Structures are given as C-alpha cells and as structure tokens.
Amino acid sequence: MKVASSTRTRFVALKSSDAKTSWYPFENGATLGLKGSEDGTILRDEEHPQEARITLERDTRSAPFAITCGIYGCMMHTRFFSLENEACSQYDKMRRALSELLATEQEGGPEGCRSFLDGVAAFVEAYP
Q: What is the mean pLDDT of each run of 10 residues along the chain (128 residues)?
C-alpha cells in the first residue's frame, strides 16, 4: 500500500492581498484511499494556499478516526475520535479555525508573530 507524503520543501511567503482563503484537495486528491500518518485510510485531505494541511483518516492504529492538521514549519496536531459524524464535524470546524489562524500570520513585526503563536496555542487548546 502506498503512503501519502507529508513532507514539504517549498515555503511561500504570501502577502495578505495575495492570500487565498479556500482549501483544495491535497495533491489533486491523489492521497484519498492511501495510508495516512496515523496508519489509517485517508478519507479527506486538503491543503491551504498559506501552507497548511488537514487530513481525516479512518481505521487508524489508535482510534476509529483521526484528524491530523498542521501549518508547515510551525505545528502539527492530531485528534482521535470514535464516531465518524463527530470526526467529520470537527474536521470542518478545525479547517475554519485554521483559516482564521492563517489570516493572522500575515500581521508583521514582533507583535504579529506573538499574536500568531498565541493563536496556535489557542487552537491546540480549543481542539485537544
């Protein structure tokens, strides 16, 4: 079985005016059905133009469902679920929250950096 790649070597700095807010299928959907980072089958796998990714897997090694998300070069976070409807609902909520968080990444200077890192900590706390 093929394993979906989770490594990235390209980092792009986007200006706020250039940043898109829509998610799109990671690798044009080629990862769906493959084995994910939690050894489950990838059901949903999306990437944000500001270098973030969120993945939903079924039948993982630790739980029936897992959501793994990350901001490239910054953070990686995984949650586990017993029920598919809860995992799908949380996936959508986490994706929206990640979009909001990524919008704060564009704020410049030390205050902007602090604000973004505080946002990352708040995200992980809100979605334990």
A: 39 36 94 98 97 98 98 96 98 97 83 89 97
